[in-house]
């Protein structure tokens, strides 16, 4: 399976799109990718609607192809938006994934009637802020070393 984030990083470098080495706030890049995100979300919604109402056979196959392609485009744009801000997407994905896997305890899964997996009692959320701080190489509150003032 392909690493979406690494592949997108390669794309951005090849086309001269900046990918900061650590979390930063890049307003111009953010504006570009946010505009593209709105466009791609609309296209994905249209493909989803067509898929939902497609008839079996060739029409469904075309709808599947369009839904998949628009979903991949959406993943690409979201990944690029995050990478353009120097955000640690691979590390955050791993942290969120590990937290999601902790929703199964002793082989038990709690679900809502619609099938959504719920958090069990005592579930521990992902350390999202920790991921960002590690990426910025910032100490946690209370540590002796102060963060750089321009960070």
Automatic annotation (TrEMBL):
Pfam families in UniProt: PRA-PH
InterPro entries hit by this protein: NTP-PPase_DR2231-like (IPR033653), NTP_PyroPHydrolase-like_dom_sf (IPR023292), PRib-ATP_PPHydrolase-like (IPR021130)
Keywords: Hydrolase
Keyword Transferase: no
CDD domains reported in the protein's UniProt record: NTP-PPase_DR2231_like
Transmembrane segments: none
GO terms assigned for molecular function: hydrolase activity
Full protein name: Phosphoribosyl-ATP pyrophosphohydrolase
């Amino acid at each position: 399976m392909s690493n979406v984030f690494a592949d997108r990083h390669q794309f951005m470098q090849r086309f001269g799109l900046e990918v900061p080495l650590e979390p930063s706030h890049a307003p111009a890049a953010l504006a570009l990718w946010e505009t593209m995100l709105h466009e791609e979300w609309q296209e994905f919604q249209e493909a989803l609607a067509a898929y939902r109402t497609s008839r079996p056979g060739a029409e469904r196959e075309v709808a599947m192809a369009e839904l998949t392609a628009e979903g991949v485009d959406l993943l690409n744009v979201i990944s690029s938006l995050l990478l353009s801000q120097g955000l640690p997407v691979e590390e955050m994905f791993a942290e969120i994934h590990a937290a999601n896997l902790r929703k199964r305890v002793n082989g038990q899964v709690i679900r809502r009637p619609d099938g959504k997996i719920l958090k069990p009692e005592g579930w521990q959320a992902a350390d999202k802020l920790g991921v960002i701080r590690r990426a910025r190489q910032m100490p946690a509150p209370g540590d002796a070393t102060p963060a750089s003032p321009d960070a």
